[in-house]
Amino acid sequence: MRTLFVVSGGDAPGINAALGQYVSLAARHGNVVLGANGGFPGLLEGNISPLSFDRIVPWLGRGGSVLPSSRDPVLTQNDARVRLKQVLEQHQVDNVVLFGGNGTLRYIPPILSEWDIPCIGLPTTIDNDVPGTERTLGFDSACNFAYHAIDGALTTAHALRGRIFMVETLGGTCGNLALAVAHGAGAHAVILPEYEYEDHWLGRRLAEAVKQDGFALLVICEGARGARTLADEIPKLTSIRVRDVRLGHAQRGGDASHIDRVLASEMARSAYNALRAKLQTGIIVVRQGKVQVHEGNLQSFTMTPPDRTLYHIINGLEESGEHSGD
Ligand code: F6P
């Protein structure tokens, strides 16, 4: 069996662990794994090489991806699909393992299935925004990365009191990551792209926290209104100093957590077994905490917004009857 790996879209901690687990299993059974260097643009240029476990070992626990990725939507270009088919034939690819987020996993498997090329998708993104799975690879590591930064901020917040700490997470226009981090860190407030809020409500909420706890912690998703302005606006509303911490891409590139390493290992094993069992198209998902193969593609699932009840609880909106404007 000759399997091709393609990593597409944003990388995520745990991808290297999954690559390693799969390659090691395949080698043990005499199967060959090829890697596309540079996602689909690299693949279309024929930039493919055999992937050995030895090449991956030093990177197993690290973030990023040994196989470079790309966000370039090259397959929308004229003739790109013809070229893709040619490359797959040329390299005698029997099946494909695809690492990516919602866009990649929706778009690519149906193309391959038109040509009867088996494809298994692994949902890999720190944003945890792939419908049909409770968990994407990389999400837990990105939460843990945020906790390290927040723990540091809170240590100094405790020593030098009377300030508001605003921590911005990645997540784009999806608030799942910011909500989970706010929950785990015990934030006083969380701001997400999906739910609108009033500035005066936020100012009051944070000022009350400073009065009660000596500091306030606000977690905000990078794509939410105010991510670029609140650090200046809140002091005007509260007369309290705001210090902001932007996790940025350091959050995406952090090391893989224990949970993501285990998830990577189980996802890789499930993908390998599914391809050996001749499954045509599937996505590896987590349901009720268990790694499973979903036969078919993602088209039957719709995206759900972040947990509104949790958002209300963190923001103290469930008891006060106050509304943030969402
Ligand atoms: O891969 C998901 C993600 O990390 C989002 O959290 C973030 O908004 C986006 O990618 C950043 O993309 P880029 O690296 O292309 O700037």
How would you concisely characterize the structure shown here?
The protein has 326 residues and is of the alpha/beta class. It has helices at 15-28, 39-44, 53-56, 80-90, 102-114, 139-159, 176-185, 199-213, 230-238, 248-252, 258-276, 308-314, 317-320; strands at residues 2-7, 32-36, 48-50, 95-100, 119-123, 163-169, 189-191, 215-221, 242-246, 281-287, 290-295. It is built from 13 helices and eleven strands.
Question: Mind sketching the topology for me?
Answer:
Blueprint: E1 2-7, H1 15-28, E2 32-36, H2 39-44, E3 48-50, H3 53-56, H4 80-90, E4 95-100, H5 102-114, E5 119-123, H6 139-159, E6 163-169, H7 176-185, E7 189-191, H8 199-213, E8 215-221, H9 230-238, E9 242-246, H10 248-252, H11 258-276, E10 281-287, E11 290-295, H12 308-314, H13 317-320
Parallel strand pairs: 1-2, 1-4, 4-5, 5-10, 6-8, 6-9, 7-8
Antiparallel strand pairs: 2-3, 10-11
Bound molecules: 6-O-phosphono-beta-D-fructofuranose.
What is the residue-averaged pLDDT?
A: 96
Main beta sheet, described? 7 strands, mixed
Number of helices: 13
Shape: elongated
Poorly predicted tracts of residues: none
**Ligand set:** 6-O-phosphono-beta-D-fructofuranose
Number of domains: 2
Distance between the termini: 52 Å
Oligomeric status: single chain
Order of helices and strands: EHEHEHHEHEHEHEHEHEHHEEHH
- Determine Rg (CA atoms, Å): 22 Å
Q: Considering DSSP H and I runs of 4 or more, what fraction of the residues is helical?
A: 40-55%
Strands, count:
11
Q: How large is the share of residues in beta strands?
A: 15-25%
